[in-house]
Amino acid sequence: MRYTIILTTYKEPKTIGKAIEQIVIPNVDIWKKLSLIIVATDNETIKSAKKSISTLPIKDRIQIIQDKGLGKPEALNLAVKTKGVSGSALILTDGDVYVSNNAIKAIINKMEETNANIVSGHPISKDNRNSKFGFYSHLFCAAADYKRNKDKKTPASGYLYAIKEWENIFPIPKDIRAEDAYISQKMLEQGYHIEYAKDATVNVMFPKNTKDWLKQKTRSLGGNVQLKKFNTKQTRSLKEDLQMALFPLQFAKNLKEYIYIMYLYPLRLYLWLKIFILNSMNKLGSGRWESIKSSKEKE
């Protein structure tokens, strides 16, 4: 099977180079079955991508496409229309995360061993667990890992996932805010289940302040709620959150982390109230790019 890796990026010139290198260099030995499409909006990111590609041991089957900055759904829609993509499986990732050396091979192996049509990778937080929002990032990554191990209907991670036989899903709605949840649910509706490649780890930086945390979570969690608008099942709910209410207390290791959790419960409730209000007013927003600056610090 052929695999097309699609890397979408928006104003990420400082991270795009390493993101590309982590995809290509560890996989030189299997590159004959891979290709890479980088979809970028801004000239600075494109310049950085070209510089990175020029230093790679292989340069064939790597191309850069410039999109109009309308959002990740439109970037993906553009990429899948590229010549040669149809008929291949897709591996989707972002320009501000770094896949581990074994991640691409691990996600391919899981797809081929299980014959699954959708496989999720395993996000890991790069942030310091000692800080409040660093702890939250580790907590939510652990909760997602727990759910993906337990339930094959848990949506794939947008940071790294693979799909095949995807042609009837695209084009995806341009206004969808959580395209990973939308694609996952569409696969489930076709009778497929979602496999989890736990060894396909991807390193992610998360928001480091309340404003950016709420902004990112409103987009991701609100995007899951928004799915009803696009005639598919909502994949996240307050009920599901309540079912996981004890997980943070089991995850905490010390007094400081228990204090962080006491802040998290009302913050999470506020987030849900905000999403409910915005959704009822049809103001959850569109699929356009939104930059979360604190998740890109020190890169």
Summarize the structure.
The chain has helices spanning 16-24, 43-54, 72-80, 103-114, 132-150, 179-189, 210-225, 238-243, 247-251, 255-280, and strands at 3-9, 34-40, 62-66, 89-94, 98-99, 118-125, 160-163, 194-204. By secondary structure, the chain is of the alpha/beta class.
Secondary structure topology:
Layout: E1 3-9, H1 16-24, E2 34-40, H2 43-54, E3 62-66, H3 72-80, E4 89-94, E5 98-99, H4 103-114, E6 118-125, H5 132-150, E7 160-163, H6 179-189, E8 194-204, H7 210-225, H8 238-243, H9 247-251, H10 255-280
Parallel strand pairs: 1-2, 1-4, 2-3, 6-8
Antiparallel strand pairs: 4-7, 5-8, 6-7
Helix pairs in contact: 1-2, 7-10
CATH topology: Spore Coat Polysaccharide Biosynthesis Protein SpsA, Chain A
Task: Note the main sheet.
Answer: 8 strands, mixed
- The number of distinct structural domains comes to 1
CATH class descriptor name:
Alpha Beta
Low-confidence stretches are: none
Provide the spatial order of strands within the biggest beta sheet.
3-2-1-4-7-6-8-5
Q: Write down the secondary-structure element order.
A: EHEHEHEEHEHEHEHHHH
What can you see in these coordinates?
- The protein has 299 residues and is α/β, with parallel strands linked by helices.
- It has one domain: Spore Coat Polysaccharide Biosynthesis Protein SpsA, Chain A (Alpha-Beta Complex).
- It is built from 10 helices and 8 strands.
- The protein has helices spanning 16-24, 43-54, 72-80, 103-114, 132-150, 179-189, 210-225, 238-243, 247-251, 255-280; strands at 3-9, 34-40, 62-66, 89-94, 98-99, 118-125, 160-163, 194-204.
- The chain has an 8-stranded mixed β-sheet, with helices on both faces.
- Strand 2, helix 2 (43-54) and strand 3 form a beta-alpha-beta unit.
- Helix 1 runs parallel beside helix 2 (43-54).
- The longest helix has 26 residues, at 255-280.
- It is globular and about 50 Å long.
- The chain starts with a strand and ends in a 19-residue tail after the last helix.
- 41% of the residues are buried.
- The model has no long low-confidence stretch (mean pLDDT 94).
